[in-house]
Amino acid sequence: MNHDPVSAGSAVSQRSRIDPSPYLVGVGIGILSWVAFGIAKDPLGVTTAYARIASVFAIPFMGSVGVASNTYWKAKPFSLDYGVVFLAGLMLGSFFSALLSRQLRVEVMSEVWHNRFGGSKPRRLLAAFCGGVAVMYGARMAGGCTSGHGISGTLQLAVSSWEFLIIMFAVGAATAALVFGRKGVE
C-alpha cells in the first residue's frame, strides 16, 4: 500500500476525473433497464445465469442425467440466453473499464480484512467462497439478487423487491458491524 501523500493525492485527483457522477450512473442503469425490458423482455439480473452456468460444471460430478433430472435445472436449463450474455458483458465491461481507467489490479486480501483477521490467504479465499455460496443460495431462495430485486424489481414497484432491498441493507449493516466492528469499517 502506498502511504506517500503526494502520489496518493494525485491518484485521488486522477480517479475523481474518471469516476462518473452517481446520478449519471443511476440514469444509465434506468435506461439500461428500459432497454432490457424493451428488447430482451427480461429484467436485469445475474443469479439465474450463474445457476444455469453451474449446471454445466455439475455434469462431471452428477452426470448429464443427474443434472437433467435436478428440479431446479429442469426448470432453468442452461441456454445461451439474454441472462448469460448479460453476465458475460458485465464481466468483460468491468474488465475493460478497469483496464482503460488504469485501475486494474488483482487483490486477494483487502487491508481491512488483513487488519481484522490476519494475513492468511487461504482463510480469506475460503471465507470469500463460503460468503459467495451463501449469497447465491439466498438470492435463489429470494427469487432474485441485488440487481434483479434491487434494480429491476424496485423499478417495477414490486413490494417483494422493496422488502428484499430493505432487509438486505439491514442485514448487510449488521453483518459488517458484527464481523468488522465499528473501527474496522471506518
Secondary-structure map with pairings?
Elements: H1 5-18, H2 22-40, H3 47-69, H4 71-75, H5 82-100, H6 111-117, H7 121-142, H8 148-155, H9 159-184
Fraction in beta strands: under 5%
- Whole-number average pLDDT? 82
| Terminal CA distance | 17 Å
Which structural class should the secondary elements be placed in? mainly alpha
How large, in whole angstroms, is the Cα Rg?
20 Å
Tell me the number of strands: 0
Question: Which percent range fits the helix content?
Answer: over 70%
Tally of DSSP helical segments:
9
Describe the largest sheet.
none
Number of domains: 2
Order of helices and strands: HHHHHHHHH
- Indicate the overall shape: globular
Notable characteristics:
about 190 residues; mainly alpha; 9 helices
Summarize this entry quickly.
The chain has helices at 5-18, 22-40, 47-69, 71-75, 82-100, 111-117, 121-142, 148-155, 159-184. It has two domains: 19-105, no CATH class; 107-186, no CATH class.
Structure description:
- The protein is mostly helical and 186 residues long.
- It has two domains: 19-105, no CATH class; 107-186, no CATH class.
- Helices cover 77% and strands 0% of the residues.
- The chain contains nine helices and no strands.
- Helix 8 (148-155) crosses helix 9.
- The two termini are 17 Å apart.
- Mean pLDDT is 82; it is low at 1-14.
